[in-house]
Amino acid sequence: MVTRVVAEFEEPELAEIALNRIRESVRDVYSTNMIYNKKSDRAERLRNGTVYTLIPTVNTVHSTHFMTAVMESPACEDVIPEPARSRKTTIYVVCEKSTIGNVTSILNSMGAMNIH
C-alpha cells in the first residue's frame, strides 16, 4: 500500500539533505517533494548586503542645476516582514507502507519536526 509521510524542517538546506539520504538508503520511495517560502531567499541575500539610496537635490544658488546624492547603508533583513522571512520547509515522501519506519527514523535523525 502506498502512503505519504509529511515532515517539517527549519531550513530548506536541511530538508534537501534529508531527502537525498532517504532517496539513497530507502527502497520503495516513489517520489519526494519539498515546499518552502521563496521570499525567504531574498531575505537571506539581504543579510550581508548594502542598500544604496539616491537623493535628488537642487542647487538654486547660481542656477537651477539638479544633482543626486547617494547614501550607502548596510542592508537589513527587517525590510521583509517576519512571516515572509520564515524558511520553514515542508517535505512529502510517497513510499510503501512497509518502509515508513525507515523514512521516519531518517527524518528524526536529521531533525525533522511534526512527522505524520
How would you characterize the overall build of this protein?
There is one protein chain. The protein has 116 residues and is α+β, with helices and mostly antiparallel strands. It has a domain at 1-37 and 87-116: Alpha-Beta Plaits, CATH 3.30.70. The chain has four helices and five strands; from the N terminus they run βαβαββαβα. The chain has a three-stranded antiparallel sheet, covered by helices on one side. Strand 3 (50-59) and strand 4 (65-74) form a beta hairpin. The longest helix is centred in the N-terminal third of the chain and has 14 residues, at 12-25. The model has no long low-confidence stretch (mean pLDDT 84).
Helicity, as a percent range? 25-40%
CATH topology title of the domain at 1-37 and 87-116? Alpha-Beta Plaits
Overall morphology: rod-shaped
CATH architecture term of the domain at 1-37 and 87-116: 2-Layer Sandwich
Rg: 24 Å
Widest β-sheet, arrangement of strands? 1-5-2
Instruction: Please state the average pLDDT score.
Output: 84
- Secondary-structure element order, as H and E? EHEHEEHEH
Give the number of DSSP strands: 5
Distance, first to last CA: 16 Å
Strand count, sense and closure of the main sheet? 3 strands, antiparallel
Level-1 CATH class name of the domain at 1-37 and 87-116: Alpha Beta
Quick recap:
This protein is of the alpha+beta class. It contains 4 helices and 5 strands.
Features:
Alpha-Beta Plaits; two-stranded antiparallel sheet; single chain; three-stranded antiparallel beta sheet; alpha+beta; 116 residues; 38% strand
